[in-house]
Amino acid sequence: MIDCIQLEGDATKLDKNENEDSHKDQYEKDMEMTHTVKNKQFNEDTIVATSLVMLVAGYDTTGMTLSFLSYELAKNPNIQEMLQEEIDQAFDENNGKMPEYSTIQGLPYLDACIHEALRLHTPVGNLFRACTSNYKLPGTDYIVRRNDLLAISAIGIHNDERYYPNPTQFNPDNFSKEARQSRSPYTFLGFGQGPRACIGMRFALLEAKVAVAMMMRKYTFLPSTKNPDVLELEPTSQLGYIKGGIWSKIVAR
Fold first, then answer.
1. Neighbouring C-alpha atoms within 13 Å toward the C-beta of 218
2. What tens digit of pLDDT does each residue of 68-77 get?
3. Residue 114 in contact with residue 69, Cβ under 8 Å?
4. Tell me, what's the pLDDT at 96?
5. Which residues contact 86 (CB under 8 A, 6 or more apart)?
6. How far, in Å, CA of 153 to CA of 213, rounded?
7. pTM of the prediction?
8. CATH for 2-8+42-252?
9. How far is Cα 218 from Cα 132, in angstroms, rounded to an integer?
């Protein structure tokens, strides 16, 4: 957290040259968060507010993702076994100790399982963005006007068969290297996209991966009879809470 605040403080002193990234496409620029900001007012209040948002917004969403992942792993023991094998190998190669940062980040099946949980059980179902300039939608006569507020259905995109075959099925292979390369990166909106993408994305993924690695090393999730056959969303929740909660049966390996 201290490093994050330091980086935010350093950002107030940066004056990035827009020409430096002219060779990169928009997606790469978005993910690096290297946008040129005009008339920026980045002060101590902004730093404090941003840091609090990272903590508050990242707490529930990360916890929900871990809950949904444990639920899906319990329902899909073959997937859970493959994940445990990958994690066990990482621990064994580090003499039984928690793998280092680079190793955790480099576990492909762990990364795929977390992203698939975010796709299938999207915490934030809609993204809202304000249009910055008039834009004509390709293939239509419709023009989105400057300052129009747009609602983007993340859940709708995540359940579109054009991008994710059998979208209601939990399938980490949707985020294999080959599958990712076959579609636009903007078909996954678990953390949003563009200049307003989730500022805590990398931190959230890291803490989720560490938590899953520690759990899978010692425990196995089994289906719980307390869960209904079909999960029902809590209608009063702004996030994707499940009515009655999610239950798991946990046994030591």
1. 8
2. 999 999 999 9
3. yes
4. 94
5. 107, 108, 109, 110
6. 31
7. 0.78
8. 1.10.630.10
9. 49
